[in-house]
TrEMBL record:
Segments forming domain Fibronectin type-III: 96-201
PROSITE patterns, per the entry: FN3, MSS4, WAP
InterPro entries: Anosmin-1 (IPR042447), Elafin-like_sf (IPR036645), FN3_dom (IPR003961), FN3_sf (IPR036116), Ig-like_fold (IPR013783), Mss4 (IPR007515), Mss4-like_sf (IPR011057), Mss4/transl-control_tumour (IPR011323)
Entry protein name: WAP-type 'four-disulfide core
Superkingdom of the organism of origin: Eukaryota
Entry's Gene Ontology cellular component terms: cell surface; extracellular region
Region ranges (Disordered): 740-764
Length: 764
């Protein structure tokens, strides 16, 4: 096997077209493709006989032997096909390795793995190449059930393997070995005994680059301050961060900052004395506030800081290890708050998910820009809006001009339940000296800029603030949410949830909150413990188009209080957020920093898997229903597809040109489309299909096990959007809904010879 063995193929045609076109030894390359197709189609051994065969339960869990894991074969079982272990034994197959042993070498983080092979027969030794595939799994405990899935780490041609700098301290590893020849394999050995490096895992270092972000003054005269950091170096995955703060003094802050300035200029020897001095810093023994921050977040907000005060802030990371929880080194920073009467609301600009600067510039009393801009008090009329006029400004003249009015949302006060807008920057063009800005957010500050088209210089500026929902002027009733809705979530790119504190006369003393985020589509639960003064939580990087349930319980002096819950559904991913990286199957278990040892000739070769990632797949935001098509634009002179058939969501090729026929003699009701093709109960009728009786006509297609009209559903093979069609249980007939795909002129793949395009069929 030559060049094709570096990739993963299940289709001999695509293998020859994509790999062998530009190779020198074309014949050898094509033989390798045939070999790959042959071993994927059929594995060694024979299918066992099944008892109690039934024709009433039909499933097609596999198509070829290669669809089954390890040594399993795809066997017929009545009207079904299922994976099963083969019976019998091919005498040419190598015996399964035994007695797997792992020994640590003198060099740190280096081990040698050995195994024992039975004496090989002459026929087994006659194979061109006998290889050994080594896999591992790891966990924080020695039991195999809590470990990861098996992953291939190296392939050798000798009965041992050396792994250098791949193992991490503090983790238990198990190894297994499979012997493989050109004829196949009998499978993997039993796992080795759990192994752990003698070097113990260290607690994480202190978080790096600790800094202060935006600060804001709340309506009650207290400050909120953002603290942000970079994750520390750690042998084990970080579990969470603990952020604590306490009252300090200006003299303590000055002394600490002076010490840090000295450290930046001293030698290593001189720094040692400073390290001993730094141990004295901390907030042990003080009246402190603490908050637990999840590991995926690298910032948190300190709430309720008194004006004109100094606070010491301490942060450290925690990890789970085989010896229990480890607490990392502490990082320290000081916060100085301003007076409550200051006009500086933001200490530094904050950036929202759109990347826009959200700072609202403050204007002093001697500036006269605001004098020339008349901003009406924001009011509610169907939506929150305000009117802006600069008719008294010198820039407003009889000469016709086009102005650009831009209002940018800055800081918002106490988190509001009401009418939050997705829009952080409102921009509109007008030819008059006035404008109406709609879609504002309650209880927020806005900055205003007015420029002329073609001139980037700002000619007028201003600022205004919106009132809380229940204080906003309106010609009618403002639909404000009340405390009858005790927990509420706003779904943007980041999901923000807020809840109301029970202030009843018999309410217990609240000492914290427990927030649990779950989803029926996932098995894990995200639990966060928050201090009593924080009644909001933010979630990043949630799965798109997925329903979540948030349950909040107050932690009181008597235990857990009454649970509040709400459901929300995340948005579909936007175009600029949806970059899906596709990896070759051979490397799907490796991160970009993993190394793979591959020794076939006695010399070691290290492959950096990060260089093997293919191009990125762009996902578009599209509709999930049938879209009408013009039949006159679909067919060529041979009554086949005139254009390429592609996924409307990711443009992946489904059928190349001139492959399939259009039929309308079959009707079925399909659920509305979604990523994964599951979860939607609403259906619509489909009656126009691209039809084929050969899976070789597809360029890419995905299969789902949802049964409709005694047929399995089809999805896009790349982004799994669907269902886009149906297939019979015996995989002999396929229908792809013409109104659920796109039809485009798609260029041939790189290296492929372009085929002459056939003429379009004339209108009847």
């Amino acid at each position: 096997c030559t060049e094709p063995c570096r990739e993963s193929f299940t289709d001999v045609i695509s293998c020859k077209d994509t790999v062998c076109k530009d190779t020198v030894a074309n014949d050898v390359c094509e033989k390798s493709c045939d070999y790959l197709q042959r071993i994927f189609t059929e594995k060694p051994g024979a299918c066992p006989k099944f008892a109690n065969q039934s024709n009433y339960e039909c499933t097609a869990l596999c198509h070829l032997d290669g669809d089954c894991p390890e040594t399993g074969k795809c066997c017929s079982y009545g009207c079904s096909r299922q994976c099963a272990l083969p019976k019998g034994r091919d005498p040419r197959l190598l015996p399964i390795p035994s007695s797997i042993s792992v020994q640590e070498r003198k060099r740190k983080r280096s081990i040698i793995i050995r195994w024992v092979m039975q004496k090989l027969s002459r026929e087994q030794n006659a194979a061109n190449s006998n290889l050994y595939v080594v896999q591992w799994r790891w966990g924080l405990q020695p039991d195999g059930e809590s470990m990861t899935e098996w992953q291939t780490v190296t392939v050798r041609n000798k009965p041992y393997a050396i792994l250098k700098h791949l193992l991490s301290p503090g983790r238990y590893y198990q190894f297994r070995v499979g012997a493989v020849s050109v004829h196949g394999s009998l499978g993997f050995s039993q796992p080795s005994q759990p192994f752990k490096l003698s070097k113990e895992a260290r607690a994480p270092s202190s978080p790096r680059d600790i800094s202060l972000g935006a600060s804001k003054l709340t309506p009650i005269g207290l400050w909120n301050q953002i603290v942000q950091w970079t994750p520390p170096a750690s042998d084990l995955p970080i579990k969470n961060y603990q952020l604590s703060w306490a009252v300090s003094s200006a003299s303590e802050a000055n002394a600490f900052e002076e010490m840090m300035r000295r450290r930046a200029t001293l030698t290593t020897h001189e720094k040692r004395s400073l390290d001993e001095e730094e141990e004295a810093w901390g907030i042990d023994g003080r009246d402190r506030h603490s908050v637990i921050v999840p590991s995926h977040t690298t910032q948190s907000e300190l709430s309720g800081l008194f004006p004109n005060s100094v606070y010491i802030v301490e942060i450290h990371a925690s990890v789970d290890s085989s010896e229990g929880e480890l607490h990392g080194e502490k990082g320290i920073i000081f916060v100085r708050t301003l007076n409550a009467t200051t006009s500086q609301i933001l200490k530094e600009p904050s950036i929202d998910e759109t990347g826009f600067d959200l700072a609202v510039p403050t204007t002093s009393s001697d500036e006269d820009d605001d004098v020339n801009v008349d901003i009406q008090t924001p009011f509610y009329d169907g939506e929150l809006q305000t009117s802006v006029s600069w008719i008294n400004s010198a820039v407003c003249s009889p000469e016709k001009k086009t102005f650009v009015v831009k209002a940018k949302r800055g800081t918002c006060r106490e988190y509001q339940l009401n009418q939050h807008s997705d829009t952080t920057v409102h921009e509109l063009r007008v030819t008059e000296c006035s404008a109406t800005i709609r879609g504002l957010t309650f209880d927020c500050d806005y900055s205003l800029e007015i420029t002329e088209v073609g001139d980037t210089k700002t000619i007028l500026t201003g600022s205004f603030s919106t009132d809380p929902c229940d204080s906003t002027p309106s010609s009618g009733v403002v639909p404000c949410l009340s405390h009858a809705t005790p927990v509420f979530c706003i779904v943007h790119t980041t999901v923000s949830c807020h809840w109301v504190r029970d202030r009843g006369p018999n309410a217990d003393t609240v000492i914290g909150y427990r927030a649990a985020l779950t989803s029926p589509m996932r098995d894990d639960t995200n639990i966060t413990i928050l201090p009593p003064q924080i009644r909001e939580i933010h979630y990043d990087n949630l799965v798109a188009s997925t329903m979540y349930t948030l349950q909040v319980q107050p932690i009181t002096n008597r235990g857990l209080g009454k649970a509040l819950s709400t459901n929300f559904v995340t948005h579909a991913r936007l175009l600029d957020e949806n970059v899906i990286e596709r990896f070759p199957a051979s490397f799907r278990y490796f991160s970009g920093h993993d190394k793979i040892e591959h020794d076939l000739t006695g010399s070691e070769m290290t492959i950096d898997a990060s260089h093997l990632f293919p191009d990125k797949l762009i996902i578009k935001n599209v509709g999930n229903k049938n879209e009408p098509v013009d039949r006159d634009e679909l067919l060529n002179v041979d009554d086949k597809n005139w254009k390429s058939v592609v996924c409307r969501r990711c443009d992946s090729l489904i059928f190349p040109e001139d492959r399939v026929k259009l039929v309308d003699d079959y009707k079925a009701k399909l659920p509305l489309m979604s990523p994964g093709g599951k979860g939607c109960t609403e259906t619509e009728e489909v009656s126009l299909w691209w039809y084929t009786n050969s899976d070789m006509d597809f360029d890419t297609v995905g299969f789902a096990w949802v049964v409709i009209d005694n047929k399995k559903t089809l999805l896009c093979g790349d982004c799994e959007f669907g269902p886009i069609g149906l297939r019979t249980l015996d995989d002999k007939q396929y229908w792809v809904a013409a109104e659920r795909v796109a039809h485009v002129d798609k260029p041939p793949p790189p290296g492929a010879k372009p085929r002459p395009k056939k003429d379009k069929k004339k209108k009847q």
